[in-house]
């Protein structure tokens, strides 16, 4: 078994990954990359791209809202329950 340090010391074998990078349909940094990203990753077309992005933003904000409620509201309830159990 190879130790972690010796694994890090070995040169990185890129193998066929260079070819993957050459065939990257998004071509990050080139003009139009955002449209290509949504077309490739989210299957957006010119007709529905705005709708796809809006749906992604909506779900992202919904997730943030859930996390905030979980940690701030549930956190307080959990604290109250533990305080009553342990008479703190």
Note the overall shape. Answer: flat
Number of domains: 1
Report the total helices.
Answer: 4
Average pLDDT works out at 80
Which runs of at least 5 residues are low in confidence (pLDDT < 50)? none
SSE pattern: HHHH
Q: Bin the strand percentage.
A: under 5%
Counting helices, strands and paired strands, the structural category is mainly alpha
Q: Biggest sheet: strands, sense, closure?
A: none
What is the straight-line distance between the termini? 50 Å
Q: How many individual β-strands?
A: 0
Give the proportion of residues in helices: 55-70%
- Rg measurement, Å: 23 Å
Description:
The protein has 88 residues and is mainly alpha-helical. The chain has one domain. It is 68% helix and 0% strand. The model has no long low-confidence stretch (mean pLDDT 80).
Strands, helices and their partners?
Elements: H1 4-9, H2 17-22, H3 33-42, H4 49-86
Pick out its properties.
88 residues; flat; single chain; 4 helices; mainly alpha
What's the gist of this structure?
This protein has 88 residues and is mainly alpha-helical.
